[in-house]
Design brief:
single chain, alpha/beta, Rossmann fold, 5-stranded parallel beta sheet, about 50% helix, about 10% strand, globular
Length: about 220
């Protein structure tokens, strides 16, 4: 994986309020960072809403369930089309943004999104050998419809540490964590972070240092310190 396969750009501004996104592989510490930021924003006087995308309805799609269970196997077997999957989950995200998130931003809310558009792009990139130029062009057009977050954070974690965190969760204790796919996603997220000007949060650092990166990036212009 050498770079962005198409010149993606998000040119729309989110307007009022504060839009913050968090990306990263499972076990990268997104939930911890989101919880701490939500509390800090509330202390700073914001009304805060957190969205975890895609929606629960999208996650119930048979193709989504099949892909989540074993992405590499179902794609290789032709059971899930990754381009069609992107259209489904990106459309679900865009609908949530336009119908629920943007009205909150216009009212001055701080909105934190767990897995914004970049997570959907990540899955396309780890499967890019199956994508055509025409499909990438369609994807770029959809990307352009998304507002650019005021701050986009990309959490990074090693495979060993993430696997330890995932297996410590009772509900996921028996899950198989594929090291090949995991490391492809790490590489893809780093490429996306650099392309979109996101901020790296290396969760190998202690919690205090990670949170300092987050608050200093959002900064005093949004009344957060």
């Amino acid at each position: 994986m050498t770079g962005i396969p198409y010149p993606f750009a998000t040119d729309k501004q989110p307007g009022r309020g504060l839009l913050v996104s968090f990306e990263g592989v499972d076990g990268s510490g997104k939930t911890t960072n989101i919880r701490r930021l939500r509390a800090q924003l509330r202390r700073s006087g914001y009304q805060v809403r957190v969205f975890k995308l895609p929606s629960s309805a999208a996650k119930q799609l048979p193709a989504f369930k099949d892909y989540k269970r074993d992405p590499l196997a179902v794609e290789a077997a032709g059971q899930v089309d990754i381009f069609a999957m992107f259209l489904a989950v990106a459309g679900d995200r865009l609908n949530t943004i336009r119908t629920r998130i943007q009205p909150l931003l216009e009212r001055g809310y701080a909105v934190i999104v767990d897995r914004y558009l970049y997570s959907a792009l990540c899955e396309c990139m780890v499967s890019s050998n199956r994508m055509t130029a025409a499909q990438w062009s369609v994807i770029a057009g959809i990307v352009a419809e998304f507002p650019t977050p005021h701050a986009a954070f990309f959490n990074r974690v090693s495979f060993i540490e993430a696997r330890k965190r995932i297996l410590s969760r009772e509900a996921e204790r028996d899950d198989y964590v594929d090291p090949i796919l995991f490391n492809r996603r790490i590489d893809a997220f780093e490429i996306l972070r650099a392309h979109f000007g996101g901020t790296l949060v290396d969760t190998a650092l202690d919690d205090h240092s990670c949170f300092k990166i987050i608050t200093s990036t959002i900064g005093g212009s949004h009344g957060v310190s």
